């Protein structure tokens, strides 16, 4: 509902709305009202709405966007929140089933309608069809007239609006309620001129190139000058017949010339090459798009054969060879895909269709008419798709290989833990049990015996077992992450690793470090563990440095050693299990992973998360 002062109007499906219900409304800077629904997006221009209210338009023209305009999914019902968002630069963002659609109203393609693109299709008085190449003659008993029309508009044909007027009969322009016809049921005798206008939303009316005359003959009782005209007609019969013949011929010639000019304009404005060749090999017709391949105008090509036009573009020989097949078989021939290199060296792909044009006998092929449709964009998209599919196949293969290696590593780790528990912890617990039993028996047999040394040994062994269990628990899951936060857990891991291995590990972290999301923190902690193990195993150095920073909400981790180094590019092309697991952990946590190393120059491991820090997290310990 629109309310302005004391006026109001309601729009529905019958007034031009393309769908219902409408879920969202948004107004752009140019006065366009954007609507979203289950069937896509649509724009209503406020100035068109004002014209509709003034009666200039039969319905409000709506520009509708869907899959043909780039929407991957037309359903934009706004089930997401917010339903529509306007960015600072004026663009709109809509949630859809497949993702989001970003709409820039200012970048919408502008389409202009030319007079030659508005044309008449047919005319009739009801049962009788009228030819359009001459003035429309209605007999004395014919008072009804219908004229069908259309316009060439490929991008938004549903948004076209028409109005018409019969000069001398209609007082004003009449909006076309049906988008393609004009009708009169009670014409009076006289001479009129039918005029047609069309418009696109947001544009002015465009006059059709063709204005057609309409003659309505009177009944005998409608002409008060019948007797005088009959007498004059008897005297001037011979001269009038001769003059009529001349006028008819001139009108025929004029109509034929206009039809030819219109057809020529239509052909020349087509972006697709169109051509016709005679049996002698010369071109009978060439439009501008086809002439550009030779760098000539249509007039310079018509009447000449291809061999007379200079060097032929690469790939054109296959196109010319189809003509002989069409002349010989009298059947259509199609070249599904042909590559042609134009004068500027650009490679373009076309779908070529050639059809026979028969003579008066209906059997002899006099000309071959051909049309080429540029499918370069589709071909390039197909090639890009093939490349992306190849990348996807390689990525899937890498993922499968990594999964197999991770499964083997997981099984190896389980075997290691089982060996440590069986060979170490189980044996130690059995020894402790025997020591406790012997101590108990000694006390029973000799109550006065001093067993303090046995108890001290038992306590020491129990402490050592507890430390081993704690180390195993830390390998399985780091409890320090929950209690100390990421910075404290990494600091503790560096200190524990240094004590266990003898490496000198420096840890740098700012005091105001804020924890990231839990999955990011766990990934960084595991990468620190694996990175330190790699330093110990491969660097050949007893020093390493771990740097943990928080910059603008992003987490940055660096592990640096001054060891022997390695070829980083070769290692990342075929990473080992350690590098692969660190890289995969970083990817799953939404972080980037990079290795910088060279032989003899040490190694620098860099991880940068793209996820912001979680509010209220732990802070680094002093």
Task: Show the helix and strand layout.
Layout: E1 2-4, E2 7-9, E3 24-27, E4 32-37, E5 40-45, H1 46-53, E6 62-65, E7 85-86, E8 92-95, E9 100-103, E10 118-124, E11 129-130, E12 136-138, E13 145-151, E14 161-167, E15 174-175, E16 181-184, E17 190-199, E18 206-207, E19 212-216, H2 226-235, H3 237-269, E20 274-278, E21 283-286, H4 288-291, H5 298-301, H6 316-329, E22 333-341, E23 347-358, E24 365-374, H7 376-445, H8 452-476, H9 480-501, E25 504-508, H10 518-539, E26 543-551, E27 554-561, H11 568-573, H12 577-588, E28 591-597, E29 603-609
Parallel strand pairs: 12-19, 25-26
Antiparallel strand pairs: 1-2, 3-4, 4-5, 5-6, 7-8, 8-9, 10-11, 10-13, 13-16, 14-15, 14-17, 17-18, 17-19, 20-21, 20-24, 22-23, 23-24, 26-27, 27-29, 28-29
């Amino acid at each position: 509902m629109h309310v302005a002062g004391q006026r109001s109007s309601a729009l529905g499906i019958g007034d031009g709305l393309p769908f219902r219900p409408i879920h969202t409304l948004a107004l752009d800077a140019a006065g366009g009202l954007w609507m979203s629904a289950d069937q896509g997006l649509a724009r209503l221009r406020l100035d068109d709405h004002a014209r509709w209210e003034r009666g200039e338009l039969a319905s409000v023209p709506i520009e509708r966007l869907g899959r043909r305009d780039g929407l991957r999914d037309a359903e934009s019902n706004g089930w997401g929140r917010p339903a529509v968002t306007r960015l600072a630069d004026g663009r709109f963002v809509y949630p859809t089933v497949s993702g989001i659609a970003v709409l820039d109203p200012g970048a919408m393609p502008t389409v202009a309608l030319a007079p030659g693109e508005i044309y008449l299709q047919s005319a009739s008085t009801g049962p009788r069809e009228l030819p359009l190449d001459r003035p429309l003659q209605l007999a004395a008993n014919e008072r009804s007239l219908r004229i069908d029309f259309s316009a060439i508009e490929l991008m938004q044909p549903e948004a076209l609006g028409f109005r018409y007027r019969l000069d001398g009969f209609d007082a004003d322009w009449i909006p076309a309620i049906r988008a393609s016809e004009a009708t009169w049921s009670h014409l009076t005798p006289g001479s009129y001129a039918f005029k047609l206008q069309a418009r696109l939303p947001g544009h002015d009316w465009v006059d059709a190139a063709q204005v057609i005359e309409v003659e309505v003959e009177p009944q005998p009782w409608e002409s008060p000058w019948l007797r005088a005209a009959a007498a004059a007609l008897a005297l001037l019969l011979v001269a009038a017949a001769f003059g009529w013949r001349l006028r008819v011929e001139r009108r025929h010639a004029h109509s034929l010339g206009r039809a030819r000019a219109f057809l020529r304009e239509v052909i020349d404005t087509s972006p697709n090459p169109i051509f016709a060749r005679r049996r002698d090999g010369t071109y009978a017709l060439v439009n501008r798009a086809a002439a550009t391949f030779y760098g000539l105008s249509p007039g310079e090509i018509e009447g000449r054969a291809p061999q007379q036009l200079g060097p032929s573009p690469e790939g054109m020989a296959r196109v010319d060879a189809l003509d002989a097949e069409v002349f010989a078989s009298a059947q259509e021939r199609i070249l599904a895909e042909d590559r042609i290199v134009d004068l500027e060296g650009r490679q373009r792909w076309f779908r070529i269709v050639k059809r026979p044009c028969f003579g008066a006998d209906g059997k002899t092929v006099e000309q071959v008419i051909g049309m080429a449709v540029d499918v370069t964009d589709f071909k390039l998209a197909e090639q890009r798709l093939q490349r992306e599919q190849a990348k996807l196949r390689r990525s899937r293969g890498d993922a499968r290989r990594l999964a197999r290696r991770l499964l083997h590593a997981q099984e190896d780790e389980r075997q290691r833990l089982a060996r440590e528990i069986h060979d170490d912890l189980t044996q130690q617990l059995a020894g402790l049990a025997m020591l406790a039993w012997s101590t108990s028996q000694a006390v029973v047999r000799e109550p006065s015996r001093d067993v303090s040394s046995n108890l001290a040994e038992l306590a020491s062994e129990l402490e050592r077992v507890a430390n081993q269990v704690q180390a195993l628990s830390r390998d399985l899951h780091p409890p320090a992450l929950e209690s100390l936060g990421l910075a404290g857990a990494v600091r503790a891991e560096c200190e524990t690793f240094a004590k266990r291995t003898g490496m000198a590990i420096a840890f740098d972290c700012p005091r105001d470090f804020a924890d990231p999301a839990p999955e990011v923190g766990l990934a960084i902690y595991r990468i620190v563990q694996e990175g330190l193990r790699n330093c110990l195993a491969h660097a050949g150095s007893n020093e390493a440095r771990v740097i943990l920073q928080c910059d603008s909400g992003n987490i940055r981790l660096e592990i640096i050693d001054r060891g022997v180094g390695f070829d980083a590019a070769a290692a990342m092309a075929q990473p080992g299990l350690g590098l692969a697991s660190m890289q995969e952990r970083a990817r799953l946590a939404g972080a980037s992973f990079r290795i910088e190393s060279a032989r003899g120059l040490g190694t620098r491991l860099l991880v940068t998360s793209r996820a912001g820090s979680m509010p209220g997290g732990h802070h680094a310990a002093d």
